[in-house]
Sequence to fold (428 residues):
Amino acid sequence: MSTPLLKKILLWLGIFAGCGVLALSVALFLARQSDANFDRSLETSSLEKLRSISQSPEHDRDPLVFYWLGIRLGEAREDRPAVNALVRSVQLNANVAKSRYALGVALERANLPSEAEGQLKRAIELEPTRVEPYYVLGKMCGKYSRFREAETYLRKAAAIDPQDIEASFLLSVVLLELSVRTSEPYREEARDILLKLEKRAPQDTRILSLLASSHVFFNEIQEAEALYRRILAIQPDDLKSKSLLGRSLAEQATSPAAFAEAEKLLAECAEKDPASPATPLAQGVLYFRQNQSARAIPFFRLAIERKTLEPEVWFYLGRALMQIGKKAEGQQATALFARKDKNKREVRSLQMRLGFETGDSPEQIKQSDDLHLQTARLLMDDTNYRAAETHLQAILSHNPNHAEAKTRLKRCQAEMPSSSSHAPTKSN
Fold:
């Protein structure tokens, strides 16, 4: 074969090979684009469509399909199916932090806290700078009165993202809980955090309300009252803030105008929230401070009838009864106040011991459970069922077969309305 002909053949072979490579590259590029477009479409797909896709042979092994199916099921509050979908996603690809995080959230919603904790910790191992798992773990630990651990996780979340208002706010809530349980200056730190948050979110009434309660603790009454007025300017129908402002004025008023404002605020709260125990207690204090004991007594009795959790009501009632000459009855009320106040101090002592309980050995867990149970018994004795519920749930979160905790939790739930969470939340 002549050399020129051979060269032509080789040239054409090269051209054909180049075209083949180019065609293959284009095909691979288009396939990748198609996959990317499909993956992006999953994010906006409906629950029905994702269900259909997950059942197709083409995609029944795609972890991203099951991830988004789990997210949509969670949004629809189908908690168990969401767990199943996300478990499938993790089985197909075990090393994706966002899938582990989403599974942890779904497990927590399905009331499986131990399993949720494991998934959230795994998400942190896979992606240590992802803020959401720390936040949810902090929230979970707080829910079960593990405030030391909650503090650790929330400090980490706030350090990763200093601009995250929710993490810092929840950290302040946990620090206030720790201030009740320890002798450390957590309350001062919480107030400092809230002061900074108030500057960043001046319309957030949760922050304003918690900051106001901190001012009350430090006897900064004028600052507290100013914050309650700001809340009412933002939310004029906020009965809780009206009641707290009325209570503050009732306890601090020194002029007829201040007494009149307190009376008006509390009368409005009584009309709009006729079941509240806090309002009649504040009204009783208002009249007691104006030397109108006979007028104050029915309000104190009404607060007791509505199961107020404040032992001070018995102190005020005892004083008022004595002032109108009912000495024996007044002494009985005062003695009851002393017993309830003693219970309150014992609860605080137990909570302080719980604040220092750490570790996960069987002996340490048993000791912690015993402290939670003792605290719950005292709280139930004072009809503080909601606070008792928290301690009982802390036991049942890792020991769901604890007989006394289960029995007492049923009683707590029967004695109070359905609980609602006031903690801030994050989306998946």
Q: What stands out?
A: Residues 43-128 form a domain with the Serine Threonine Protein Phosphatase 5, Tetratricopeptide repeat fold (CATH 1.25.40.10).
